[in-house]
Amino acid sequence: MARSLLLPVLAVTLAFTVPALAQTAAAPQVEAGTYAVDPGHTQVEFGVSHMGFSNFRGRFSDASGALQLDPKAPAKSTFDVTVPTISVNTPVAKLNDELKGDQWLDAKAFPQITFKATSVTPTGPNEAKVTGNFTLHGVTKPLTLNAKLHGAGVNPLNKKVTVGFDLTGSLKRSDFGVKTYVPLIGDEVDITISAAFEKQS
Fold first, then answer.
1. What gap in Å lies between CA 27 and CA 39, rounded to an integer?
2. Cα angle at 131 between 123 and 142, to 5 degrees?
3. Tell me, what's the pLDDT at 201?
4. What average pLDDT score do residues 34-60 get?
5. CA torsion angle for 110, 114, 118, 124 (degrees, to 10)?
6. Measured between alpha carbons, how far is 38 from 92 in angstroms, rounded to an integer?
7. Which of 71, 80, 183, 190 has the fewest Cβ atoms nearer than 10 Å?
């Protein structure tokens, strides 16, 4: 059961251009500039079928990354996020150790997971499809995620200009060389990234 977790998915360094979202409904609040991931308020979660009985979930922490935002020139704006593979965490301690091992994510050989976006296509108010290159377990493949802008403005507590959004999508772990227990443990992995970025300059 502990093995059920597969989750290669997101230890991600996620890099993608998200400025197109900034030009939608939240445009008046969005400021151009350089942003950095707020690791304390950014979560990367994954879900995978456990023998068809449940959707087992876990997460990665200690995210880092940067957003170069230019609302007036979306094509020039880029975003990247990184999550260390070793940060994978589930409710099962034994499983956490297994996932870090060479039968699964192999955190020692592949310490990071990355996503670098190459294009953003708006699909509605505050929403877009973000396409980029996702690297996991030493393999890089194209991946498209659905992005939803939550808001942008000044954080009332720390007074920092902040942009927040969600990214959701899925991938097949076997495409990235993580095939342990397929199909007993699901091949398709759902990904949710709830990210907050704070303006640096």
1. 24
2. 145
3. 82
4. 95
5. 150
6. 27
7. 183
Nearest to 122 by CA among 141, 149, 151: 149
Distance separating alpha carbons of residues 159 and 189, to the nearest angstrom = 37
Cα separation, 151 vs 23, in Å, equals 11
Three-point CA angle 29, 37, 87, nearest 5°: 150
CA–CA separation, 101 and 106 (whole Å): 5
SS3 76: helix
Instruction: Please check the confidence at residue 117 and state whether its pLDDT lies above 70.
Output: yes
- 69 close to 21: Cβ distance less than 8 angstroms: no
Element (H or E) spanning 191, and its range?
strand 185-199
pLDDT above 90 for 18: no
- Name the fold adopted by 2-199: Lipocalin (2.40.128)
- 30/71 Cα distance (integer angstroms): 7
Distance between CA 65 and CA 55 in Å, rounded? 28
Contacts of 63 (CB under 8 A, 6+ apart): 37, 39, 42, 43, 44, 81, 82, 83, 195
